[in-house]
UniProtKB/TrEMBL annotation:
Keywords: CBS domain, Kinase, Transferase
Domain CBS: start-end pairs: 6-67
Name this polypeptide is given: Histidine kinase
PROSITE patterns, per database record: CBS (PS51371)
UniProt xrefs under InterPro entries: CBS_dom, CBS_dom_sf, Diverse_CBS-Domain
Highest rank taxon of the organism: Bacteria
CDD domains: CBS_pair_bac (cd17788)
Organism: Planotetraspora silvatica
Gene Ontology molecular function: kinase activity
């Protein structure tokens, strides 16, 4: 089985997409992450949902989880507002990492190895440099476990 056999349509965002809009897309569609594309719809990187949270959750709560327990519920439920007018560009990790991109001919094992190596919940699938969709961890595991 190849990437082209497991690929499905997948939503994309750009570097200038508002981070709050990206967070809503993640939540509304129950996605593990988003594909970030350039102005020519070529994948740049994968934005895991955890990176959006990293920008929204106050740094002091990330550094010391005990502090998160002392924040009252009203304020705790509102932490996503911290995204304000920030963009996807601001959610990106400071250190670029290997791109989770595979050709449409990639095997299931190649995609699994890529996901495992770079801790990505999905792989953008390209054909002739153009994005054709994505293979999610769930789709990959569903296929492998059914075999």
């Amino acid at each position: 089985m190849r990437a082209r056999d497991l690929v499905s349509d997948f939503p994309t965002v750009t570097l200038d997409t508002p981070a709050l809009e990206a967070a809503r897309l993640l939540a509304d569609r129950d996605l593990p992450g988003l594909i970030v594309v350039d102005d020519r719809n070529r994948p740049l990187t994968i934005l895991p949902g955890t990176q959006v949270l990293r920008l929204a959750v106050p740094r002091y709560c990330q550094d010391d989880p005990a502090l998160a327990r002392v924040v009252d519920e009203a304020h705790a439920d509102a932490f996503m507002r911290a995204l304000g007018s920030k963009t996807v560009r601001e959610c990106m990790p400071e250190q670029p990492r290997e791109l989770a991109i595979a050709g449409s001919h990639a095997t299931v094992l190649e995609m699994a190895a890529l996901m495992a190596r770079i801790h990505s919940p999905l792989v953008a699938v390209v054909d002739s440099g153009r994005l054709v969709g994505a293979v999610t961890l769930r789709a990959l595991l569903d296929h492998v476990l059914a075999a």
